[in-house]
Design goal:
Layout: H1 3-30, H2 33-43, H3 47-58, H4 78-87, H5 101-118, H6 125-135, H7 137-143, H8 152-158, H9 162-183
Helix pairs in contact: 2-5, 3-9, 4-5, 5-6, 6-7, 6-8, 6-9
């Protein structure tokens, strides 16, 4: 077999692998569309933002566990989940219920909606809310100074944790990818 034929076969093999990988990823992401849309509608949050958070937090694994006790698709911590349960008057709630994709997306989207409202007086509440979701309000309060109090671009530059800055940027970037795909019916 000639070198050129080997290169062509290798290229076809790689392309086929990429197609299979993308197909599999799409199937996994689509699996939770009903839960994401239900939470988005209930709490008036962009479903593409929720999808981007799920992608970043768990890569669509409903059984994901974090190192600080966060669980499920959106990696919600117990205190935030309990806040949702209290608001919904669910007296039988256990944090373990957040392994259910529907419960997880509802609880975490409720919390995310609260954070988006918290930073409504900024030029773009998304980076603030995402930083708060990832690193907590106490840290966000440290990073809001000067122009960063209302200017989201300045705020992102002032985020003191490289991991949180990368988190905010990756969720925003992924949301834009979903928006692009959505425009062309490819989501």
């Amino acid at each position: 077999m000639k070198r050129r034929q080997k290169i062509i076969l290798l290229g076809l093999f790689c392309a086929g692998g990429i197609v299979i990988y993308l197909w599999r990823e799409e199937r996994i992401e689509k699996k939770f569309t009903p839960q994401i849309h239900a939470a988005a509608e209930r709490y008036r949050v962009d479903p593409l933002l929720i999808q981007a958070v799920v992608w970043r937090e768990s890569r669509f694994n409903p059984n994901a566990r974090g190192t600080s006790g966060e669980i499920g698709l959106m990696q919600i911590q117990e205190i935030a989940a309990q806040e949702w349960a209290d608001a919904e008057h669910d007296r039988n709630f256990l944090h373990a219920h957040c392994f259910d994709p529907g419960t997880n997306t509802l609880a975490a989207t409720f919390y995310l909606a609260k954070l988006l409202k918290r930073y409504a007086k900024t030029d773009n509440s998304l980076p603030y809310a995402l930083a708060d979701y990832n690193a907590g309000r106490g840290n966000v309060l440290k990073w809001i100074s000067g122009a960063a109090a209302t200017n989201s671009a300045q705020f992102v530059e002032q985020i003191g944790f490289p991991g949180t800055q990368a988190y905010v940027e990756s969720v925003l970037r992924r949301r834009e990818i979903y928006r692009f795909l959505n425009r062309f019916g490819l989501d």
